[in-house]
Amino acid sequence: MNFFDWNYAIQLLPELFRAALNTIGVTLLGFAIAIVLGLFLAIGRRSARIWISWPIGGVIEFIRSTPLLIQVYFLYYVLPNYGVSLTAMQVGVLGIGLHYACYLAEVYRSGLDAVPRGQWEAVTALNMSPSLAYRNIILPQALRPILPPVGNYLVAMLKDTPVLSAITVVEIMQQAKNIGSETFRYLEPITMVGVFFLALSIVLAYLVRRVEARLEQK
């Protein structure tokens, strides 16, 4: 029976750390796409113009209802047949960003719907432009209650990055599997990856709580 070898685990740290940078990079870049695109999707879905709200609603439901794995497969293997070629890392960032943008769109929509009706009426009465109204009046009130679910999705994005190994993105889980296949020792690399995801998830959750506390003080 093989027991955990701490010396061997420590030797793996440089290789796993390099792959971890890819994991963190994909997560942060994908989250940047998701948090911006999700807001525009939410605003579009709430539009009074049916020709805007219905197609956007259809796209959101389609992406939310299909697996991330199928979506990144489509981006990586199908789009090149139509002249759109992206690297595995680009597809990983774009795929995970688009996927979670649709989830965040619904989170944003719940926050916007929670803004008191009187605020919307006041904005209309003051004849404020939509961009000014959203930036100064609506969004500051909508963002505070949605921070916890947004933080949850950030952690979920981090934990979904191993899916991208299917399109040859060498993130930390893929690197651990590569090490295991070369040495036939899976216990140490897989355990170290589990510790990495646990530690980083705790750090991200802590940062989200700090942002929440700061907003509550304003």
Automatic annotation (TrEMBL):
<feature type="domain" description="ABC transmembrane type-1">
    <location>
        <begin position="20"/>
        <end position="208"/>
    </location>
</feature>
<dbReference type="GO" id="GO:0022857">
    <property type="term" value="F:transmembrane transporter activity"/>
</dbReference>
<keyword id="KW-1003">Cell membrane</keyword>
<feature type="transmembrane region" description="Helical">
    <location>
        <begin position="20"/>
        <end position="44"/>
    </location>
</feature>
<keyword id="KW-0472">Membrane</keyword>
<dbReference type="InterPro" id="IPR000515">
    <property type="entry name" value="MetI-like"/>
</dbReference>
<keyword id="KW-0812">Transmembrane</keyword>
<dbReference type="InterPro" id="IPR035906">
    <property type="entry name" value="MetI-like_sf"/>
</dbReference>
<dbReference type="InterPro" id="IPR010065">
    <property type="entry name" value="AA_ABC_transptr_permease_3TM"/>
</dbReference>
<feature type="transmembrane region" description="Helical">
    <location>
        <begin position="190"/>
        <end position="208"/>
    </location>
</feature>
<dbReference type="GO" id="GO:0043190">
    <property type="term" value="C:ATP-binding cassette (ABC) transporter complex"/>
</dbReference>
<keyword id="KW-0813">Transport</keyword>
<dbReference type="InterPro" id="IPR014341">
    <property type="entry name" value="Ectoine_EhuD"/>
</dbReference>
<keyword id="KW-0029">Amino-acid transport</keyword>
<keyword id="KW-1133">Transmembrane helix</keyword>
<dbReference type="Pfam" id="PF00528">
    <property type="entry name" value="BPD_transp_1"/>
</dbReference>
<protein>
    <submittedName>
        <fullName>Amino acid ABC transporter, permease protein</fullName>
    </submittedName>
</protein>
<dbReference type="InterPro" id="IPR043429">
    <property type="entry name" value="ArtM/GltK/GlnP/TcyL/YhdX-like"/>
</dbReference>
<comment type="similarity">
    <text>Belongs to the binding-protein-dependent transport system permease family. HisMQ subfamily.</text>
</comment>
<dbReference type="GO" id="GO:0006865">
    <property type="term" value="P:amino acid transport"/>
</dbReference>
